[in-house]
Amino acid sequence: MSFPHVQHLPRQQIGDFTVTAISDGYLTASFDFLSNIDAVDADSIQRAAGESDPAVIHINCYVVQGGGRTVLIDSGAGGIKQWGGHLNANLRHAGIAPDAIDTVLLTHAHPDHVGGLMTSDGQRAFPNAELVVNEREMAFWQDDANLARASERARGNFQIARGVFDGYREQLRTFSGGEVLPGIQAMSLPGHTEGHTGFLVESREAGLLVWGDIVHFPHIQIQRPDVTIAFDQDASLAAITRSRLLDSVSADGVLIAGMHLGEPGFARIRRAKGAYGLAYETDR
Hints:
CATH superfamily: Ribonuclease Z/Hydroxyacylglutathione hydrolase-like
Low-confidence stretches: 1-5
Family: Belongs to the metallo-beta-lactamase superfamily.
Helix content: 25-40%
Domain Metallo-beta-lactamase: 58-260
Mean pLDDT: 95
Protein name: MBL fold metallo-hydrolase
Keywords: Hydrolase, Metal-binding, Zinc
Order of helices and strands: EEEHEEHEHEHHHEEEEEHEHEEE
Pfam families: Lactamase_B (PF00753)
CATH class: Alpha Beta
Strand content: 25-35%
Number of strands: 16
């Protein structure tokens, strides 16, 4: 399956910030990775939502422009494991050169979020960017005890994360919470990883929450928040975090963005008759 070139780049104006969804492409994951739902039901939900290839997980990144800054949130997979790899082409389509990115904010350090940070020859893909990451997230991937406990599949994730941190070591900043850049607040959203973080972009009474990997299959996990995925480090905590966040963003009408939210990039969560639903947001 080939991922089509993205002709339209979803965009939202958040006060003085312009936020653009930039697709890196997609990855695929078997429904066998999901817990608390069987594959038949998962497939049915996906197809009912209009997903022609139900196992596809879209990979989004976001560019926040304003206040003299050009900030990238996550970098996609960069072609690692044949996932994604379309970020740079779509940045060019948006008129953004790699050296114009001054900051990269990481929601977490899984391969499909950090894979685009280094080039195939081991150079920084964004040479002028400061890399900003939650201190707990960085500590987890740098811990040799965690590496020793990891499965063979997961050990490769450690190597990728460590390679990125090493590549940006002279341009790397960690945070524990609070404001990471003017107008951008970090929000701890634990469970998927140790330091999984959302970023709340606020300006002139407008706001947008980039919630990272709260969902991988949005139609399934918004309808069924108890459904977890094998990539969660703490599946129980990830489900609790998801349920609490869905409750708050639906009650407050918060505009959300997510790395696996689908090509439209932006949405609101509606609640009716005790169930959550996904409503994609058109550009404004």
